[in-house]
Amino acid sequence: CDPPLVFAAGVPVEFQRSRLSNWETTADTAAVHAKASAFLAGTRDLFITGGVGSGKTRLACAIANEGAVARLSARFVRVPMVLHQLQPGRSPEEVAALERQLFSAPVLVLDDLGAERDVATDYTRRTLLMIYEERWDRGHRTILTSNKTLSQLAEMQDDDRLVSRLAGRADVVTVTAPDQRLLRRG
């Protein structure tokens, strides 16, 4: 009988079996894998950037799942959905429940930062900064994925506050693989 599958809360079905041990490592991705492997034992956050379909989300889920296996509570969320769920007009109870999840998870994956809009709104900037700052103040670790670089995010947000914090608190890794979804289709 197989042991029960352990994965981080919110991880999409597609990535529930993802682990660092089964993430394909090549000569080009060895440094990325090393930083990802060091994340759980370290103290810095992790910003994973790369092209669409390059494996950023799979890598972030692999790290979060390793944390869950080690009994470190981890949670996965997609940034555009979080921003949608926290919008003004939602019930205060729903917002408070989501904020508790976002703020209290020892490890949180914020997937697809920068996919929420072409140009960030004041609401987007404030909300993302609030989430990141609250987590940092509580001593919790955050993994962020984006198909934008930090400088592209700063330009998109028309504000340097979040990017400055990420630059100072997070290791930045770039996944350079081609779009894996397109390769699987071919």
Please, could you describe this protein's structure?
The protein has helices at residues 30-39, 56-69, 79-85, 92-104, 122-137, 150-157, 161-169, 180-185; strands at residues 45-50, 74-78, 107-111, 141-146, 170-175. The chain has eight helices and five strands. Helix 4 crosses helix 5 (122-137) and helix 6 (150-157) runs antiparallel to helix 7. It is α/β, with parallel strands linked by helices and 186 residues long. The termini are far apart. The protein is globular and about 45 Å long. The model has no long low-confidence stretch (mean pLDDT 88).
What fraction of the residues are assigned to beta strands by DSSP?
15-25%
Mean pLDDT: 88
Give the termini separation. Answer: 36 Å
Structural class: alpha/beta
H/E element string? HEHEHHEHEHHEH
Largest sheet: 5 strands, parallel
Which percent range fits the helix content?
40-55%
List the strand order in the largest sheet: 2-3-4-1-5
Total beta strands: 5
Helical segment count: 8
Task: Please compute the radius of gyration using only Cα atoms.
Answer: 16 Å
Shape descriptor reads: globular
* Low confidence ranges: none
